[in-house]
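fyi for ur records
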Amino acid sequence: MITFDGSIEPDWVENMNSVLDDNKRLTLITGESIYLTPQMGLILETADLADTSPATISRCAIVYVKSKSLPMKAKFNKWLRTLPSVLKDQTERIDVFVNFFMSEIFEKFMRKDFMIYPITKQWMLGNFIKVFSSLIFDYHS
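which gave:
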């Protein structure tokens, strides 16, 4: 299985149509063709389909998943994979740290007597990721 994760660019997604057809052929810029074997498949994981044509959409099976139904650990793990190379050796320590403290912090902030404005755990995790990402911004190459 080959997974494309991220935003869909109109330049390359149209070239994927021949891969998504029954012949499963990818034609490279050089003119060379690569054929997928019957055991191979493609997954396009994206936030939206704004830049795809009806031709591409008609060749795909689409599964829509609400972000609220995804486990928070999955969202956090996806973010961990985006850490800059200088922090890759710290990934496990960051994971342990967040798993140890976040559930306690979430429970404290989710108490009805503490909240001024209702928020979700997904929102809190998303903001934690934004803040942490801003602190390590200078390390991204």
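The radius of gyration is 20 Å. thats all i got for now
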